[in-house]
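Worked example 2:
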Amino acid sequence: MTEPFALKPGDVVSYGAEDYVVESRIAYTSPRLYWTEWVLNAGDADNRITVALLDSGLYLGKPCFFEGRPGDQMLRVEGRLFDLRRAGRADASMEYDTGATRFDRAEFWHYTDASGRLIAVRRGHLGEWALDLTPADPALLDVYGA
């Protein structure tokens, strides 16, 4: 994989046996943290993944459901408990494959379990959503320019 910051809306990313198109790029900036997420779509709204660059690590994420409220000390996902690791507010700069851009403020909560699995919860103009993030090997992603 090329440098992750080189991903841009419209690029095609092959992962496993599936091809995904980069739908959008969201860069989050808070006083102590910066990270980027790319939303990839394999052709329908139910088949999306997220590639996230956070703390110099690359993660692959899928939407997930959680029990609890963002900001609680613990959340439950698929029967497993996750502890709050960090929380805050960030500026969000979004770029879409249509060429449109948007700026927003987002609240975020990052939770981990004993194995290091990461649950990232966001609240912004699109509502509230959560991602189940697992570490990813960049060699497993093939990137083709738009």
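The mean pLDDT is 87. The chain is about 0% helix and 65% strand.
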